Amino acid sequence: MTEFRDKRLLPKIQMVLTFCMFGLKPGDKYLQIQTEGERGTMERFLLIFAASALSVVSSRPARQYHVILDPKNWTEAQRYCREKFTDLASVDNTDDVDILMNMGLPTTLEPWIGLYYDGGTWQWSMTDKDFFKPDGANYRNWNPGEPSSGWNNAQCVYMKVTGLWDDSSCEWPRKPMCSDVRGSNVTFVHIDTSMTWPAAQKYCREHYTDLASVRSSAENQKIMDLKPAEEDVWLGLSKTSWTWSNGSTTTFHYWNDGEPNDQIAVCVMMLFKNLGKWVDSKCGQLRPFICYEEFLPVFKQILRLKLVGNPSLDPNDPDVSAALQQQLLQKLKDQNVNGNVNLNWMELADGKIFHQIEEENQT
Q1: Tally of CA atoms within 13 A in the half-sphere of 223 that contains its CB
Q2: Which of 14-18, 55-59, 188-192, 255-259 has the lowest mean pLDDT?
Q3: Considering the chain, what is the average pLDDT of its residues?
Q4: DSSP-assigned letter for residue 89
Q5: Which of 164, 172, 255, 335 could form a disulfide with 259 if both were Cys (CB 3.0 to 4.6 A apart)?
Q6: Residue 190 burial (CB < 10 Å; 0-12/13-18/19+)?
Q7: Does the pLDDT of residue 69 top 80, yes or no?
Q8: How far apart are CA 328 and CA 21, in angstroms?
Q9: Would you kindly state where each structural domain of the chain is located, as residue ranges?
Q10: pLDDT of the residue at 321
């Protein structure tokens, strides 16, 4: 087996811990601690304890690519990647393309990636099943002969000037029709800015509820009455016919000009001679292929803490230190620190975690 490897760089983990010491009363001050070199700050209290150190271990998934030069058909390549690594590679964005293109591989390389055509189904952007009851999700108002090109890039739906629907490339700029849902009531909102379907979906979700779902001929007519008479508008219906082997939901596409262009060729390879762009190819052909492997790199940081609390509580008591540890862990989760996080107190030479600091003289 011949393979090439590369790792994507990982950003540093930044964590903000904000917590109240076990035993603080309402209105008491609290301690805020931030890593990355910014020292924890605190107000002056009657009693201060200094912890020797708290060890914080965190991890997040990273990806390593493996380019296998021994040729296989797409199905065999998928099986091999799943047995040896994680799966055939997904290419989720231009950063992934750059990583693969900068691995020093031959420009003649045409390897399989994990993308394939599975036919797909038409689905509304809005996924609330209660919104579509009893059968609103199945309403369609296709123009005669449509949809006509679901096997290639035409996977998003727009309303024509006639009120009938057509499928189109999702990258074509059109003005979207958003929906604002309040309970059982829906209001349609026309946006007077042209954008791609993915951008329209993002805009509608950020400012309203979603791209417009059409459950009946009455709602179709409402949109017709609202939109300018000579304009097409995006609706919330789309089809994801091209699927990643690992289940990635990315909408990123990087097709070579004129691709995909063959309804029989339903698997995808990369053209390294043309910036890593994608071409459809018959799945039975023997080609090199790209696997990927996910792993969890471990990051360890040691934080030195100062705590304030009830003088009657001994922080070196196992129950008290365990309660503090649980509060810290919960605050990490509240601050959206994802992945596996382990907290451990580090003992000093005398076996203690905390040592009392004498009160500073007040002026």
Answers
A1: 33
A2: 14-18
A3: 77
A4: P
A5: 255
A6: middle
A7: yes
A8: 9
A9: 13-60+297-357, 86-116+256-295, 122-239
A10: 78
DSSP string, 44-61: --S-EEEES-EEEEEE--
Give strand pairing partners of 63.
294
Give the span between the Cα atoms of 331 and 186, in whole angstroms: 38
Containing 66, the helix (H) or strand (E) segment is strand 62-72
Give Cβ neighbours of residue 201 (< 8 Å, ≥ 6 apart). 125, 176, 210, 211, 236
pLDDT score at 57: 46
Contact yes or no for 227/177 (Cβ under 8 A): yes
* pLDDT at residue 161 greater than cutoff 90: yes
DSSP 130: H
Residue 127 CA, chain-centre distance (Å), reads 18
Q: How many CB atoms lie within 10 A of CB 65?
A: 20
Domain 86-116+256-295 in CATH: superfamily?
Mannose-Binding Protein A, subunit A (3.10.100.10)
Q: Tell me whether residue 23 is exposed, middle or buried, using C-beta atoms within 10 angstroms of its C-beta: 0 to 12, 13 to 18, 19 or more.
A: middle
Residues 6+ apart with CB under 8 A from 346: 52, 53, 54, 55, 302, 353
Those residues with Cβ within 8 angstroms of residue 320's Cβ, 6 or more apart along the chain or in another chain: 22, 313, 314
> How far is residue 109's CA from residue 290's CA, in Å, rounded to a whole number?
11
Q: Which amino acid is at 359?
A: E
Other Cβ atoms within 10 Å of 311 Cβ, number: 11
CA distance 192 to 169: 20
Per-residue model confidence as pLDDT tens digits over 281-313: 999 999 999 999 987 656 666 777 776 666 667
Q: Which two tokens stand for residue 118?
A: 């599975």
- The SS3 of residue 153 is coil
What CA–CA distance (Å, rounded) separates 84 from 64?
A: 13
Chain centroid to Cα 85, Å, comes to 21
Cβ(116)–Cβ(264) under 8 Å?
A: no
Residue 44: burial class (beta carbons within 10 Å; 0-12, 13-18, 19+): exposed
The confidence band for 109, taking pLDDT boundaries of 50, 70 and 90, is very high
Residue 255 has pLDDT above 60, yes or no: yes
DSSP class of 86: S
